[in-house]
């Protein structure tokens, strides 16, 4: 017995694994593209199969596809969408331009499943043919870009939810520490009083703003070029096919799928580049915030030490007891990798030529990775570190009253010049500003503490110049 079957295409014969549900064109691609060892993204597989299902339904309505054939194709697609046969999608992410190999992988698997259900044999492609029936009215040029957009529409809510959960934790800490006064730092130098609450509320606010900008891109991703067939011409498509397939996809996905310009949706990936840019912006903010948290947690004795992050693992193979901010180090690394994926998307965006951007397989993969990695990293950092973050209030109080920057609060009482003298005296003697103020008879230490609290909350100090 052999462990393979022989199939034939326009190039000749080729061996296909006997138990494979895919066929000859997929087998050729597996042989040709042993590149990354990474199989297709699952959301992308499902999105492409949804398109095949919607196409079958759209083609049955004008009588182009028989009812029996349509039902068999739909049933095969539904089995895949329910989680069966996902391992049969085997073409490397780096493959022939445009994604022809993945398109045929879908066509062949669906055709073989449908044929066996109708009493046919695997690899015989009768009564249902991968090209003539499963791919009816379609082209790689319109199905692959559409599938990428559908997959991104699935991933986007996960990313937005992860961002929201992190923002919620920042808000919780902000509310809890709204009266915890600390020294602000500008240029990494001591500055005026602020609060942990204000600092952390700002983190939550900027994350939500980034998420809002990303959410605004959903309508762009909902525009499809299905029905453009080759070069946006609509060649070999049934009457009104673009409208019917868009409606079928809208029913399947729950998204407001609309018909875009059929040629433009193959030429341009403006919407994908815009999404990548939005993800890049989020990654830049996240890495800035992660760096802040690592600084605030530095120490514990010789750094800032204003916060303590939960210990999730030993930090050193040589230094006993050392604990590192590993979750936010991980988040930094993911963010930098996401920036690299965005750069790849930018290069591939401009690489489209005339009627087609052939970089779609790698472009889609870069976006899938960026969204999945960032989603997972944000969730992990939130759950394993941010939720257990502890603010060291005594440390914050020590720093704020040890800061020469508190002399700024005296500007409206004694003027900038005299306040500068107080600052210099504090710097020279190491004596806190509040003690110097009290020694000069300007105000009591208690009143100065109230002044610091008022300033940290941004309240009007109501103190006329003396």
Keywords for this entry:
466 residues, mainly alpha, Fumarase C, Chain B, domain 1, Ribonucleotide Reductase Protein R1, domain 1, 3 domains, two-stranded antiparallel ribbon, 17 helices
What does this protein look like?
The chain is mainly alpha-helical and 466 residues long. It folds into three domains: 19-136, Fumarase C, Chain B, domain 1; 143-224 and 259-392, Up-down Bundle (Fumarase C, Chain A, domain 2); 402-456, Ribonucleotide Reductase Protein R1, domain 1. It contains 17 helices and eight strands. The strands form four sheets. Strands 1-2 form a two-stranded antiparallel sheet. A two-stranded antiparallel sheet has the order 3-4. β3 and β4 (189-195) form a beta hairpin. α3 (67-81) crosses α4 (100-117), α11 runs parallel beside α13 and α12 runs antiparallel to α13 (360-384). The chain is elongated and about 100 Å long. The mean pLDDT is 94.
SSE run: EEHHHHHHEEHHEHEHHEHHEHHHH
How many whole angstroms does the radius of gyration measure? 30 Å
By DSSP, the count of extended strands is: 8
Helix content: 55-70%
Corresponding CATH architecture of the largest domain: Up-down Bundle
Number of domains: 3
Indicate the proportion of strand residues.
5-15%
How is the secondary structure organized here?
Blueprint: E1 4-9, E2 12-17, H1 24-32, H2 42-60, H3 67-81, H4 100-117, H5 130-134, H6 140-176, E3 181-186, E4 189-195, H7 196-215, H8 218-221, E5 223-224, H9 241-253, E6 258-259, H10 264-267, H11 270-296, E7 307-308, H12 326-349, H13 360-384, E8 390-391, H14 393-401, H15 411-429, H16 433-439, H17 445-456
Parallel strand pairs: 5-6
Antiparallel strand pairs: 1-2, 3-4, 7-8
Helix pairs in contact: 1-4, 2-3, 2-4, 2-6, 2-9, 3-4, 4-6, 6-7, 6-13, 7-11, 11-12, 11-13, 12-13
